[in-house]
Predict the structure.
Amino acid sequence: MSTPTRSVQIDVATGLLSGVRQVLSPHCDARPDGARPELLVIHGISLPPGQFGGPWIDRLFTGNVPADAPGSLRDVAGLRVSAHVLVRRDGTLTQYVSFGQRAWHAGRSEYRGRTACNDFSIGIELEGTDTVPYADAQYESLTALTAVLLAAYPTLDAERIVGHSDIAPGRKTDPGPAFDWGRWRTALSARQSGHD
């Protein structure tokens, strides 16, 4: 298991991170012609809801939740969703979709008058809930990953980083009040200025 450090890099040609776990999802497709990553969307996810660890997020993003899965997992069986990267509670990263492709993470969404945010965004899932504080290791990994993405993709900008709730208000609430935006933005700014 690995977490992002200064040595994690992106191969922009493939859109894949080096040194992280790869579980490539079939739930993705090509971005529209000319579309580039311009928006970073932070999500929160736990499967089953409120539980951490286990295989279910991998299985959801690869289309392998059986119809007879236990309890609330049956509700997500058959969904065709994905994200570019998951940050587990211990900070471990798993990449599901190349950054050059469109992951299916935002659903019906709008950012500054532009709809279909999947077309021009990168989706990062944090393993968590709206109400359980995110782990220190997650903030560290998210900060390092975001810095690498901003350096690799000049079309991204630190001012265009939002929560799922910001682009799908009334429909989504994640990453929720448990995510400390101020803490994370301060850490990102320090990393970008070389003071981390």
Confidence is low (pLDDT under 50) at residues 1-6. The longest strand covers residues 39-45. Residues 136-152 form the longest helix (17 residues). Residues 10-192 form a domain with the Lysozyme-like fold (CATH 3.40.80.10).
